[in-house]
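User: Hey, my collaborator sent me this sequence without any context and asked if I could get a structure. I don't really work with proteins. Can you help?
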Amino acid sequence: MIKLLIILFIILTLFISIKIKFDMRYDKNKLDFKVYIFNFDITKMIIKTKKTKKNGEELVKSHKERRAFDTKISLRIFREILSRIKYLKRKPKFIITNILEFGVEDADVTAVLYGHICTIVYSIFGIISCYAYTQNSKIDVIPKYNTTLFKLHFEGILKIKIAQIIYITFLFITLGRKLNGTTSNRKLN
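Assistant: No problem. I've predicted the 3D structure and written it out in structure-token form, which is a compact way to encode the shape of the chain:
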């Protein structure tokens, strides 16, 4: 009976998805960025932990060098994980709503900037769509001629299943061991 409940629990957790919402607004030289998990604002918790770490932390040179080495390995692991996620059959879903309004006093410059900004925005969107399903996404780039204006509203909703999180965690652990030079019969540092 207990084994049946455990198997049922595992099956249910594999199909439950987590909803992460990103909200970024830039208007009148003010940036507002928030991250929500299940409608709970985790941005406040992240800011509090960073403030407490900055007050009591002193870095030694060797610690900086080790951190740089760890960053290089982390970037290699991140690239490898992204290359594996790219070919998954069931990718996470990412719904993007992006509204960008900009303007420069000269209409010619605004028109040229419009072409360049559209190229950059849609290139980034194309890269994101390689790693996640981006259906129902909306991207608007709105030029405002003869005005000086820059407004950005980015809202993204990432829906990822627990099974995908477990797979990515497994990839992170196995690739981390592989890139660090450790094998499965040695302990991690």
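In plain terms: The radius of gyration is 22 Å. You can pass these tokens on to your collaborator as they are.
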